[in-house]
Amino acid sequence: MISDHDMIRAWTQVLTLSKLEAGQTVTVLTSASTHPQTLQTAVIAASGMGAIVNRLDLPPVNGDLAHSRDPLAYLGTTPLTGNRAAIAMLKESDLVLDLMTLLFSPEQHEILQAGTKILLAVEPPEILARLVPTEADRSRVRAAAARIEKAKEMHIVSDAGTDLRCALGEFPVISEYGYVDEPGRWDHWPSGFALTWPDERRTNGTIVLDRGDIILPQKSYVAEPVRLTMKEGYCVAIEGGVDAALLRDYMASFNDPEAYAMSHIGWGLQPRARWSTLALYDRERTIGMDARAYEGNFLCSLGPNNEAGGSRNTACHIDIPIRNCTVRLDGEDMVTRGVVQDGFGRALA
Questions:
Q1: Angle 338-220-273 (CA atoms, 0-180°, nearest 5)?
Q2: To the nearest whole percent, how much of the chain has pLDDT over 70?
Q3: Are residues 110 and 210 in the same domain?
Q4: Which of 57, 68, 98, 241 lies 20 to 30 Å from 40 when distance is taken between CA atoms?
Q5: Are 324 and 159 in contact (CB under 8 A)?
Q6: CA 7 to CA 290: how far, in whole Å?
Q7: Of 174, 165, 140, 77, which Cα lies nearest the Cα of 270?
Q8: Other CB atoms within 10 A of residue 227 CB
Q9: Which residues pair with 231 in a beta bridge?
Q10: Listed residues 130, 161, 177: the one ending a domain
């Protein structure tokens, strides 16, 4: 449990890093699943900094289509779809604190294009408090993003059998460090990784998930190896035992060939996030940000690319943080067998 005092202090740090100023308008976006302590302390912190604070509460959607309560288990319509009044309110805000999960939607892009900043924060309070972002997180993530921006190819290998090549340059590079310090910026607290999307139809090779690797939104540790074959940007085979069968069945339920397309790729840079944390939580208590951000994982994904300006808008989104990979940009190691080679964190130790 986290005290309200500690959460208010955490929110104040995040809002200060996000350059919130007195007199600015903050809208807190909530829904039925919003954690009451996160909401209460966000309002107190923003009000204490002199902001004009509003709350916009919207009903949940997609309940009849999603396979779980995880907000990332179905990325279809959102409570903002067709809701022009709500969109107008958010566009008039300087900062939106998204405690609902508004992702992969044209409405989010429209709000960001108006100059509004959006910060997503839906993990439990104790995870938020442990992973409060810092300026050092920003520096590290942006340095990694700068390396990706210069690269033409990302090559990922592992002793388990992964050998994947992704051509780069068609899509932008995204830095997620946990706060929003520029107009029109979106970020996620907690986070700590750099990512991009490979060029369309130019991902080829094999991804092998070894025992202990994680599949999201299933929030499960792989018990036996799973082999994904990538050809011209699409997963054409998912082979293995029960874990592979479960993944195949879940993805097939969307009846959408775009669900199998390669989505974002990158690596985790957050030393305070832990690979082991997911094992400590009930599946409905977390969306698995520790798993996505822990230092040294290769984070790959299947599904949409509309977040990067692409046209793929599938409702199915699979995130796969993989341990012990070597990630190379144009032949140079960025991560070597799960250890980031940037002079920070565990690599420096």
A1: 45
A2: 99
A3: no
A4: 68
A5: yes
A6: 18
A7: 140
A8: 16
A9: 234
A10: 130
Q: Provide the token pair at 182.
A: 């520029």
The residue among 82, 111, 130 that closes a domain is 130
What is the rounded CA–CA span in Å between residue 310 and residue 158? 29
Determine the angle formed by the axes of helices 36-48 and 4-17, rounding to 10 degrees: 60
Residues 149 and 90 in one domain: no
* Strand pairing category for 325-329 and 153-158: antiparallel
The DSSP output letter for 121 is -
Binned at pLDDT 50, 70 and 90, residue 347 comes out as: very low
Q: Are 254 and 315 in contact (CB under 8 A)?
A: yes
- What six digits make up the tokens of 50? 């002199």
**Residue 248 lies in domain:** 135-348
Residues 255 and 305 in one domain: yes
Q: In this structure, how many other beta carbons lie within 10 angstroms of the beta carbon of residue 241?
A: 12
pTM: 0.95
Same domain, 119 and 148: no
Quick one: 195 and 83 in the same domain?
A: no
**What band does 346 get if pLDDT is binned at 50, 70 and 90?**
low
Express each pLDDT in 197-220 by its tens digit: 999 999 999 999 999 999 999 999
Residues 221 and 341 in one domain: yes
Q: Are residues 232 and 124 in the same domain?
A: no
What number is the average pLDDT over the span 252-271? 97
Nearest of 86, 94, 138 to residue 119 by alpha carbon: 94
DSSP state of 84: H
